[in-house]
């Protein structure tokens, strides 16, 4: 039986007691709602959990979810909806949850977001929907805002545990084929939205497993893979076809998918999986890894189960992690779980500027990770056998804000020291892999290698080719990738529907033509004429 920071039974009993009291009061006033304490979910004890892969945070109990939803004051002009990148009707799903109508509440979320069990777990809510929540504002603490993400996660888990999720209604076959490149959140959303319209959808994935970063990057202790499997299983039941170990650009060129395989539209959701290195001296020593590779070995290639797979994993005692984002937090917590006794994160700005989710930073600190702010590596030092032995660390001060609005770190001249280490994980960012873009003539990319799209439609410079997610935005977030996928799917569906109407209008006339020259080639050309224009 795992130990918890606070016994889940006690948390539940307290919530139930409070619910009884509130029910006796009848209609709640605003001050009653503001007086309800924020509901904290059960969390595994940090001493124990930092050696396990088990998910750290459990869902709210039903009584907690109802109580938390009762904290919402149902604003007329809700700031939470404005802060949500996909504009979920948050007050409505909270209202239904407060009434105990969980099935209606989750349907409200699913109208807008396909992956609530995932978003409820990994979205940076404190910077999005919860940032300007009226309750948090009234209580003068964003940490006391309505815990929207926790309720969202509760509802999604509740539905998953009830029964197999129902397959959404699929329109009758349209005769059109859509290819989706990449099975991350952007690709999964496009697959679902296009399939619902009756199109035949095939997802091509370079890896041997599906899910993109949700599978290879974000660890089990934050996002159990059964949650990702359930979402993919639903798509399979909807009739989406998945082809793994299929690298578009190598196994098959993108344009061949349309010209030779007959796909009518292609969506590129190939993400930003190419790690960035610092270029500092010593980065080629044995023991220096990109955090992405480290996490991929652990999460997707089974290195978290030594003995069960052949995947080798570098065992280290003292690990230094460079960076301050979610990747850095996942890497440092994974290093701890894989046996490192000391893990130090170096981040060259202060905690305020840290891009990682606040909760991940707190969990990392609880697990004994040390974060040294305003410090960064200048170089890596090796021993006589070419293995890492230390990191040279530079101290910084904060200067004026830079283009990102965050205060610029300025090195303090001469203020350096040596930090002993036997492994260094570099988590300073990711770029897009150029394989696909460089093998697709005419596909416009910007200076950073990201695909350029029309912001309204997600169309690329090539006809019938759409893109979204990290390959367009650069390394961003799950919800933004999903939002991009949804927008591109809408454009694809509109384009294909328009063509179907045009063809239907053409067909009788073509059959009636005296020459009888009605041919698929003509249709194809017509479809091209109607499709997305190549933009100059
Ligand atoms: C370790 C880590 C932790 C993160 N934590 C969070 C978090 O807590 N919250 C949050 O919101 N965001 C987080 N992010 C960011 C988030 O996961 C990404 O923004 C999101 O997954 C992007 O989705 P995507 O669909 O665009 O791409 P991805 O998820 O990257 O999926 C792209 C897929 O395309 C495949 N692919 C690439 N090229 C090809 C090709 N040529 N042919 C076929 N397939 C191809 C890849 O193998 C991959 O499976 C994290 C990222 C990482 C790396
Ligand atoms: S801003 Fe906060 S209180 Fe207002 S509707 Fe949204 S969740 Fe409820």
Describe the structure in your own words:
The protein has 536 residues and is of the alpha/beta class. The protein has 3 domains: 8-162, Alpha-helical ferredoxin (Fumarate Reductase Iron-sulfur Protein, Chain B, domain 2, Orthogonal Bundle), CATH 1.10.1060.10; 177-273 and 432-512, FAD/NAD(P)-binding domain, CATH 3.50.50; 278-430, 3-Layer(bba) Sandwich (FAD/NAD(P)-binding domain). Helix content is 39%, strand content 15%. The chain contains 21 helices and 15 strands. It has a 5-stranded parallel beta sheet with strand order 3-2-1-4-15. The chain has a 5-stranded parallel beta sheet with strand order 6-13-7-8-9. Strands 10-11-12 form a 3-stranded antiparallel beta sheet, with no helix packed on it. The longest helix has 35 residues, at 478-512. It is globular and about 80 Å long. The protein binds flavin-adenine dinucleotide and iron/sulfur cluster. Iron/sulfur cluster binds at residues 72-75, 78-80, 90-91, 94, 133-135, 146, 148.
């Amino acid at each position: 039986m795992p130990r918890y920071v606070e016994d889940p039974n006690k948390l539940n009993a307290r919530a139930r007691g409070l619910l009884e009291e509130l029910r006796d009061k009848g209609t709640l006033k605003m001050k009653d709602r503001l007086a309800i304490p924020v509901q904290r979910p059960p969390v595994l004890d940090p001493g124990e959990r930092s050696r396990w892969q088990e998910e750290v945070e459990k869902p709210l109990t039903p009584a907690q979810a109802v109580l938390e939803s009762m904290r919402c004051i149902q604003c007329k002009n809700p700031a939470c909806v404005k802060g949500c990148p996909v504009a979920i009707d948050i007050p409505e799903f909270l209202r239904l949850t407060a009434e105990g109508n969980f099935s209606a509440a989750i349907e409200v979320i699913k109208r807008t977001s396909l992956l609530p069990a995932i978003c409820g777990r990994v979205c940076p809510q404190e910077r999005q929907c919860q940032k300007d929540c009226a309750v948090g504002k009234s209580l003068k603490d964003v940490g006391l805002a309505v815990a929207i993400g926790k309720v969202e996660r509760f509802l999604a888990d509740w539905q998953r545990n009830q029964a197999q999720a129902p397959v959404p209604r699929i329109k009758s076959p349209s005769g059109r084929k859509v290819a989706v490149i990449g099975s991350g959140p952007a690709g999964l959303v496009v697959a679902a939205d296009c399939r619902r319209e009756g199109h035949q959808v095939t997802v091509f994935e370079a890896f041997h497993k599906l899910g993109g970063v949700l599978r290879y990057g974000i660890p089990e202790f934050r996002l159990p893979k059964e949650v990702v499997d359930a979402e993919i299983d639903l798509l399979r039941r909807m009739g989406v076809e998945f082809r793994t170990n299929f690298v578009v650009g190598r196994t098959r060129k993108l344009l061949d998918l349309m010209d030779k395989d007959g796909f009518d539209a292609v969506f590129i959701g190939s993400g930003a999986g190419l790690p960035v290195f610092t270029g500092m001296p010593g980065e080629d020593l044995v023991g220096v890894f990109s955090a992405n590779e480290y996490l991929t070995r652990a999460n997707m290639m089974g290195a978290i189960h030594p003995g069960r797979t052949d995947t080798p994993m570098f065992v280290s005692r003292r690990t230094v992690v460079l960076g301050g984002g979610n990747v850095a937090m996942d890497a440092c917590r994974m290093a701890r779980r894989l046996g490192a006794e000391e893990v130090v994160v170096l981040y060259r700005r202060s905690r305020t500027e840290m891009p990682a989710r606040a909760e991940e930073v707190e969990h990392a600190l609880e697990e004994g990770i040390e974060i040294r702010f305003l410090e960064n590596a200048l170089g890596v030092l090796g021993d006589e056998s070419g293995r890492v032995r230390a990191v040279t660390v530079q101290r910084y001060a904060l200067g004026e804000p830079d283009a990102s609005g965050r205060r610029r770190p300025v090195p303090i001249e001469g203020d350096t020291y040596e930090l002993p280490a036997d492994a260094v994980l570099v988590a300073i960012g990711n770029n897009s892999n150029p394989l696909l873009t460089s093998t697709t003539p005419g596909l416009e990319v910007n200076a950073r290698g990201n695909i350029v799209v029309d912001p309204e439609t997600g169309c690329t410079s090539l006809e019938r080719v759409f893109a979204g997610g990290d390959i367009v935005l650069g390394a961003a977030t799950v919800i933004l990738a999903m939002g991009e996928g949804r927008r591109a799917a809408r454009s694809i569906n509109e384009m294909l529907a328009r063509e179907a109407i045009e063809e239907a209008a053409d067909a009788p006339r073509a059959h009636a033509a005296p020459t009888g020259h009605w041919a698929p080639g003509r249709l194809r050309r017509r479809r091209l004429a109607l499709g997305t224009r190549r933009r100059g």
